[in-house]
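Weekly modeling sync, notes
Attendees: AB, CL, MP (scribe)

Item 1: holo prediction request
CL wants a bound-state model with flavin mononucleotide before deciding which constructs to order. AB pointed out that an apo prediction alone won't tell us much about the pocket. Agreed to run with the ligand included and paste results into these notes for async review.

Input as submitted:
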Amino acid sequence: MGNQEDIDLSVDFCGVTFLNPFVLASAPPTTTGGMIGRAFKAGWAGAVTKTLLINASTITNVTPRLASLGFKGQAPGSKVNYALENIELVTDRDLSLWLKEIEDLKKKFPDHIVIASIMDDASEPKGWQRLAKQCEEAGADMIELNMSCPHGMPERGMGSAIGQDIDLAARVTGWVAEAVDIPVMAKMTPNVTDVGLVAKACVDAGADAISATNTVASIIGVDLETLSPLPSVSGYSAHGGLSGPAIKPIALKAVASIAEATDVPISGIGGITAWEDAAEFILLGASTLQVCTAVMMHGYSIIDNLVEGLAGFMKKKGFTTISDMVGVSLEKLIPLGELDTKTRLVAHIDNTTCTQCDACFISCRDGGYQAITRGSDKVYKVTEKLCSGCSLCMQVCPVSGCITMGPKS
Ligand SMILES: Cc1cc2nc3c(=O)[nH]c(=O)nc-3n(C[C@H](O)[C@H](O)[C@H](O)COP(=O)(O)O)c2cc1C
């Protein structure tokens, strides 16, 4: 990406300085302090611990606990995963072990940011406050409130059982904000009607930052041989949480809604795999970014693409700091009723790059406006007065740039 020395990737996130915006999300890549240390060495600026509980001995994970979503008909030997579903619970490692590891991490990596993710039920403040205080004393730079895990924990009155109830979410945030001096970040669930409302209630109750989002409640599929939903645990399953590229659009919408509803820093999470995803989250209002599934699939080394790619993009677009870029695209997000209805575009097909696959013809015939005709020589033509400008043909065309939308010729 060339020389990007004049680009400053550091971020001031509610008073905490991150060397760059990239943070490991609370998940398997942050299962131990040792793993987090390796990630810091690889270039990650911060990490959110796997969620800590007062009593980790209540946690027993099932096997297997992951299932992935590819697409039917992939070529043998190739595997593209759009999403991962997990039914994993929070950490099963003892709190005292974690507190020691947080302390060690901060000694070894004083410039890297350790965020302690914590969880309890909403019956009383004691557990939340004790967890938060102990993590603060161990040296954690921030606290993240896990009020958003959609599986396993809600049955115990924890996770999204709290984040889906505005009053409980605000109450828990207030308890923790009152107990510690370090910044408190509330992690949202996307499984609500209006995430902006929940985030605002948490900010009003004392949250210094919001992270969004946790996984999307899901059932990833059913094994058609055994008829068991997936992942199958001795023939049975439970609904779980979806992560990875498929949830990015849901997470981007959540971040934009939170940016519009609050004025605190936002940590964007959901499907970030490459620098382009990171740039999109920042443009819609996030200033730090958390990553889980892409690291689970490809390892800590994806940080090189994220850092170099983002710096290269910033240089190209004339942004010198992350704060120059945060939320810049929000002003282009307007009510649908205010969008331009006067400009009428139609499809244009470049038959010189067309592979004659028929996809545009079939889609327009059966899912569109019958505007594309196919000559006997498989040359495709758009009848402009029939084309409604929907762009379906462009969406299904496998050749980039072959079909474009433009004014009538
Ligand atoms: C296997 C697995 C375990 C997870 N465990 C936790 C957890 O303990 N606490 C938490 O707040 N989020 C947990 N998450 C959610 C992630 O932190 C993150 O919010 C979510 O995966 C979306 O980001 P991604 O698309 O980059 O994976 C977990 C996700 C996965 C896939």
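Recorded for review: Residues 25-28, 50-51, 84, 86, 88, 90, 117, 146, 149, 187, 214-215, 243-244, 247, 269-272, 291-294 surround flavin mononucleotide (CB under 6 Å).
Action items: CL to compare against the apo run; MP to circulate these notes.
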